[in-house]
Design goal:
8 strands; three-stranded parallel sheet; 28% helix; single chain
């Protein structure tokens, strides 16, 4: 695990674009009202995703795992008006909360929020991709995605999904020149035990905090 000390984190935040108010509100309400708020992408990760989108100027984005929408909104803020972000989450209890902030962000015209299993939803996204299930490969389900409107940076993609954890384990994106960019996620754990000392949250003045963990 990459550890960032307080001095380095302060330096990065000092030289990072300010967090938009809607994302500040989203982060605060997620920490106050939701279980497992550490799943939130947060300011630094959000700005990194926004920067990548500004550099690549994608027309289609596929995100597996929405949570409360911080990363989806961050990416939408870095894309053009004709981009569509498909973001998928299987937890329908988060839907109202997440849709509320997507609407508040002003990015609802770019974000398609899907509730359900990614393996069921991805093959139905045929307005963007022709999806072919290529079966099992080393215990993972392999999906081949052919964009209906290929771009220089994306003419073919593969996604490998863990059928047990229902999480994306690997992606491969191939560009017009035949170059492939592969990203693998290893040692993925669902809600692992993490030392509370690694996290610190100070609520703003006047905010009442309800500890939902007491009822667990």
């Amino acid at each position: 695990m990459l550890e960032i000390n307080k001095e380095l984190e302060d330096y990065i935040l000092t030289h990072t674009e300010n967090e938009e108010q809607v994302l500040k509100d989203l982060s605060r309400e997620t920490h106050v009202k939701m279980l497992r708020p550490r799943m939130l992408s947060g300011h630094l990760q959000g700005k990194f995703l926004k920067m990548i989108c500004q550099m690549m100027n994608p027309k289609r984005v596929l995100e597996i795992g929405t949570y409360t929408g911080y990363s989806a909104i961050s990416m939408a803020m870095g894309t053009s008006d004709d981009c569509v972000i498909h973001t998928i989450d299987c937890n329908d209890e988060l839907e109202y909360f997440t849709r509320k902030f997507i609407k508040q962000s002003g990015c609802e015209n770019k974000i398609e929020f899907h509730i359900g299993e990614a393996l069921d939803i991805i093959p139905k996204l045929e307005e963007d991709f022709v999806v072919e299930n290529q079966g099992n490969e080393n215990g993972l389900i392999k999906l081949k995605l052919l964009p209906l409107e290929p771009e220089t940076g994306l003419v073919l993609a593969f996604v490998w999904v863990d059928p047990v954890k229902k999480m994306m384990a690997k992606t491969l994106v191939v560009d017009f020149y035949g170059n492939g960019n592969e990203v693998s996620m290893t040692n993925i754990e669902i809600d692992p035990e993490v030392d509370d000392a690694m996290f610190e949250f100070t609520p703003p003045k006047g905010v009442d905090v309800e500890d939902n963990t007491l009822s667990q």
